[in-house]
Fold these 3 entries.
Entry 1:
Amino acid sequence: MNTSVFAFIFTMWVLILVGGGFLVLFIGPISFVGTTDINPMLNSIIKVIIALILIFFWVLILTKIKNWIFQKQIKS
């Protein structure tokens, strides 16, 4: 039982680090060129939407892994 829980925690931390690195390296430098004064606000809104989508997928992946680990434990 302990090994599965530690595997889940390890996977969770790996996903957090990969997701944070992805956001900093690829999403952070994105800039959309515009001629209006709303350009910095638009950049921030688009980056937030991308970050929220990635967070949704990370939580979905963690939920699937958690269910798989604990259903496997219940069967044994």
Entry 2:
Amino acid sequence: MKIRITFILLIVLSVNIQGQYKQNPKYQYRQKPEYHSIGILKVVNKELFPVLDSIIKTKSKVSYFNRGSLFTMWFGLDSINHDLINIYAEGYSIVGRNHDLGLFEYQNQTFFVRGFSLDTTIFSKTKQKRQVDFSGRLIYDKYLKDGTPVFDAMEIHELWCAWMCRYKKNQFKLLSFYSSDKSIPWIDHVEEEYRDNSHR
């Protein structure tokens, strides 16, 4: 009997919660700004540009990320394969600083370079800086009747778009692509690349 009552109460609670939401794609919630000054980088190895072109083209097909213009590029994230670069489409916002070495603009997209040391065969520092808001401004499409925004953290957490690229002997090779958008085919040549080159 207690199980039935508990079950009925959960259903009523669920219906009540759902009834409080209204859809409004124009409603935007902004947290308090968190500005930081980040150095602007110059790309000195132009071989990077064809890789970025491919990444931007693929990203434009991925739902949620297609209009967002922010990326992060991680160097040295893989402790085994040090020459592997991890690139993530961040969409519209980046929450918090994280080993930022600088940023650069390319094709109206912003790439945050992250890692523990800057590879000077790819980038050079400039004297310019840019103010960046790391508060993680998020666009909400749901809110309560009193105007309180509702952020579905699980929903955003399950959205991802990532590439892996190898940088060896001043050359870049795009090895993989993964996305939460199942309509875009995945690519994965990472193990193949390192297996084939393990004897070299």
Entry 3:
Amino acid sequence: MLEKYVRFYLISGTVLAPVMVLFMGALMYIKLPNPAKLSILYVSPTNPLWKVILLWIIFLSVLTAVIYYTNVWYVRKLYGKHIDKLRELLKEIGEVE
């Protein structure tokens, strides 16, 4: 059961980062005025919509990959030894019966 909780923790922690970036990006586009200086994050005559969307997709993909591998390492550091000990105990109990 602990493995299921750890897996949920890993997945939810990984999904949370891009969702928050998308939320903050939406707030940025809605609440902030367009910058006077041309930016790669905003649509402009020199920067079409497809380039802005592609930039966001690439950024979110890289961010998600980094967050996923960081979460895998961190979860393993936090719970790995405990899960291994529990597995070992379950094996010993299974051998006794």
